[in-house]
Amino acid sequence: MRIISISNNKGGVGKTTTTVNLAAAMQILGKKVMVMDMDHQAQSTYHFGINPNKVTESIFDVLKGEKRYHEIIIKRAGIDILPANAELRNIEFLPLPAKEFLLKENMEDLEGYDYVLIDCPPSLGVLTLNAMAISEYILVPLQAQFLPFHGMYNLFEAVQMVKKRINRNIEVSGIIGTMYNPKKSISREVMEETEKRLPGKLYSTMIRENVALQEAPSWGKTIFEYKPDSNGADDYMALTEEVIKRFEE
Ligand SMILES: Nc1ncnc2c1ncn2[C@@H]1O[C@H](COP(=O)(O)OP(=O)(O)OP(=O)(O)O)[C@@H](O)[C@H]1O
Ligand SMILES: [Mg+2]
User: Fold this and answer.
1) Distance from the CA of 7 to the center of ligand 1, in angstroms?
2) How far apart are CA 77 and CA 24, in angstroms?
3) In the structure, what pLDDT confidence band is assigned to residue 178 with cuts at 50, 70 and 90?
4) Residue-level pLDDT at 106
5) Which of 115, 136, 166, 241 lies 20 to 30 A from 248 at CA?
6) 17 alpha carbon to ligand 1 midpoint, in Å?
7) Domain span holding position 208
8) Does pTM top 0.90 for this prediction?
């Protein structure tokens, strides 16, 4: 089993799109996959066609210790989803010590999955720390649209701190270029600069800008259900093959 946080403290870089479609491609390739939605915006829950407003038992109940993982699973597209809803925001107000270790309880329930993917919120707050406390790996989506290195350093610094204080076994396993436009020089520059500064981390598959990827969430479908013949589907399948190869070789 591999537990992977999909994280970047910058918003709107493709974390949710990557979590959902990576999970879907892994499932198509025969892997047993769980997706954990750790964002109170509940966008990966929504992307799988689950209305967060109707979710009565969410990952927040697991964090509170009132439910175990397997009690809140919703099955969709062959994937086990641990849904979120807006309640997740209330983690700030839970009167508990050591709030970054709440997901760590009952982790034996996660055995049996090939991959557990965690969609993190765009911050380095307590929800992200919970995700990082149980992850071995972090995948960082990076929007190939402008030079974002300042934010990236915050993330890498945070990972170093997590390594020291919360989870010694975590590492950034790779960076995924998203919203890539081969016609724009900025897209190429961002990727060249990433390779220069963080050699060997960037996956060679870039996720191109693709309207179908943008449309699929409102239909509650993964890209493979919504438009299996799109560039988005091709790119996420190629990326997933590369990710699996890197993890399983
Ligand atoms: N390759 C792509 N091409 C076109 N649009 C994309 C692509 N990837 C993501 N998008 C769109 O960009 C927006 C942001 O993507 P997404 O929600 O995946 O980012 P995020 O990092 O999860 O955001 P947040 O930080 O708010 O959680 C969404 O509207 C999504 O549909
Ligand atoms: Mg998101």
Assistant:
1) 13
2) 7
3) very high
4) 83
5) 166
6) 6
7) 2-248
8) yes
